[in-house]
């Protein structure tokens, strides 16, 4: 970390003279002028310096070092296992050209056309569709819930009504008008969801029998039930059939459970269909669950597949997803439909949350 000590010397000793102060500010200004707020970057490239990064703050430059065994991933902006970091040879993350979506004067004469970063115009519908239609690729570089030109609209309760649709501004509004304006909320029942991921087999079936022993009951006297998001590998489908017979819900969790997390982030509509609709077909065939009750899914590693995943869900008639994580809050969030904008931010490093309107529950 010698380069870091040298930097510290430059920053500390520079108080000796006004000329040194000017040089220091000039050097720091050059380092930070093209960096976004909070962006971490390197002063030295190479595997030996891959743990060390710098951040521009109001108080000056701040040095950060990843723990032993880890390296800093510039694209993810977080520490990761050394073998997983592929950009140790770079000083900063890739700078992406942004489209010219907000300008003083319209740049495009045609209605519903928008400007790329180079000023050329393309149709609005081509933005954020997974294909680079602008010459500079800028149409795919501003695609989060805040910037996607084709993003889902804000919640409109006048047209979003139960049982087919539910939304609220912050996600905490209780359905059914049980708690209007946070009044008489004691009428709201406590809702506890029990879910399990991955294979059902001899390694865990005894545990499930112990948990669901017909002694744990809901206030109405019915036994508690769970949802099992089943992946194909190592699954005993006779055990899956037995859990379904006992009244538990079975849902899809993929065929391969691909270990590469970015696969799920970047997967195409076809990839998602093969994994999830294919998993449902296998459950139908080998677990004999052919009552059309497999209507939900959860992405492996909770790695959301963005608009591609939710487009597949509409096409394949899945009713709900259980992959998107949300920040902890009190009161907690209620399920919502994706017709309208998500009531919380996309939570997690490099998560690919859907931005467009989809006929799916979350």
Write the layout of secondary structure elements.
Blueprint: H1 2-13, H2 18-32, E1 40-41, E2 52-57, E3 60-65, E4 70-73, E5 78-81, E6 113-115, E7 121-123, E8 195-197, H3 205-211, E9 227-230, H4 237-245, E10 249-252, H5 261-266, H6 269-286, E11 296-297, H7 306-315, E12 320-321
Parallel strand pairs: 8-9, 9-10, 11-12
Antiparallel strand pairs: 1-2, 2-3, 4-5, 6-7
Helix pairs in contact: 6-7
Describe the structure.
It is a single chain. By secondary structure, this protein is of the alpha/beta class. It is built from 7 helices and 12 strands. The strands form 5 sheets. Strands 1-2-3 form a 3-stranded antiparallel β-sheet, covered by helices on one side. Helix 6 packs across helix 7. It is globular. 23% of the residues are buried.
């Amino acid at each position: 970390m010698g380069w870091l000590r040298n930097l510290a010397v430059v920053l500390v000793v520079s108080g000796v003279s006004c000329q040194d102060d000017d040089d220091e500010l000039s050097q720091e200004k050059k380092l930070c002028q093209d960096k976004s707020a909070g962006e971490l970057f390197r002063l030295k490239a190479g595997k030996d310096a891959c743990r060390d990064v710098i951040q521009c703050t109001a108080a000056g430059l701040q040095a950060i070092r990843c723990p032993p065994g880890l390296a800093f991933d510039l694209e993810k902006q977080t520490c990761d296992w050394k073998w997983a970091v592929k950009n140790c040879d770079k000083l900063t993350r890739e700078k992406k050209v942004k489209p010219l979506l907000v300008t003083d004067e319209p740049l495009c004469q045609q209605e519903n056309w928008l400007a790329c970063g180079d000023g050329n115009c393309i149709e609005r519908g081509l933005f954020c569709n997974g294909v680079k239609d602008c010459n500079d690729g800028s149409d795919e570089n501003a695609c989060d819930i805040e910037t996607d030109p084709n993003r889902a609209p804000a919640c409109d309760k006048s047209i979003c009504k139960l049982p087919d649709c539910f939304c609220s501004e912050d996600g905490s509004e209780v359905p059914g008008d049980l708690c209007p304006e946070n009044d008489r909320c004691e009428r709201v029942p406590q809702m506890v969801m029990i879910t399990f991921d991955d294979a059902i087999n001899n390694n865990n079936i005894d545990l499930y029998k112990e948990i669901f022993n017909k002694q744990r009951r809901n206030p109405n006297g019915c036994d508690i039930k769970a949802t099992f998001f089943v992946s194909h590998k190592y699954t005993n489908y006779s055990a899956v059939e037995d859990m379904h017979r006992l009244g538990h819900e079975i849902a899809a969790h993929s065929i391969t459970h691909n270990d590469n997390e970015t696969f799920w982030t970047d997967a195409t509509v076809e990839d998602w269909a093969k994994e999830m609709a294919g998993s449902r077909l296998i459950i139908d065939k080998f677990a004999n669950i052919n009552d059309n009750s497999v209507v939900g899914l959860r992405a492996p590693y909770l790695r959301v597949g963005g608009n591609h995943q939710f487009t597949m869900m509409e096409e394949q008639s899945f009713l709900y997803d259980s992959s998107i994580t949300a920040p902890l809050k009190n009161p907690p969030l209620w399920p919502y439909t994706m017709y309208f904008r998500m009531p919380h931010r996309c939570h997690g490093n490099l998560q690919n949350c859907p931005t467009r309107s989809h006929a799916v529950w979350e």
